[in-house]
Design brief:
By secondary structure, the chain is of the alpha+beta class. The chain is built from three helices and seven strands.
């Protein structure tokens, strides 16, 4: 009887050690992957950031940057404005660099492949983000009532600079 009890305790200990090893294998003590390098956005070829603010007509925003023949253009459609109010404005490289600075400050590269939605919400808001760099690397993200880390900061910062550009 004692042998069976000891064998049972020994087997449980082996199982616990086995699962502990595989759970922690390859991670540091903070449970974060080792050597994770933050990737930076640079040299934008095109960018599209759009989001909805409600389900009402014209309740959406769209900011685009496109590079055509070595010139940059911004296409801006503001909230609660009809699509016809959209403006295409030639922009300086300095403006593009400001956008890149915002995107890197909030690590938007980490948004790549973010695609989440709350299936319990029927009339919510969502967003779409895509970016193509000169080196052909892309970032694509979308969400419906679920947003990636720092989304609010990115949205607020882009709102500010694109709205100022639109109103100049």
């Amino acid at each position: 009887m004692k042998k069976i009890g000891l064998l049972l305790i020994f087997a449980v200990l082996i199982i616990i050690l086995f699962f502990s090893f595989f759970k922690s294998n390859g991670k540091n003590k903070d449970n974060k992957p080792k050597n994770k390098k933050i990737q930076k956005i640079e040299n934008i070829k095109s960018m599209n950031f759009s989001y909805s603010t409600s389900t009402e007509k014209d309740s959406n925003v769209r900011y685009e940057i496109i590079k055509e023949n070595d010139k940059y253009f911004a296409i801006i459609k503001l909230n609660n404005m009809p699509d016809e109010s959209e403006k295409k404005i030639e922009i300086a490289e300095n403006f593009v660099n400001n956008v890149i600075e915002i995107l890197n400050k909030y690590n938007v590269y980490s948004w790549n492949k973010f695609n989440k939605s709350d299936s319990n919400v029927l009339d919510g808001t969502g967003f779409y983000f895509s970016l193509l760099m000169e080196n052909n690397k892309t970032i694509k993200a979308s969400g419906y009532e679920i947003y990636p880390k720092n989304y609010g900061y990115v949205r607020g910062s882009l709102d500010e600079i694109f709205e100022n550009l639109y109103n100049e």
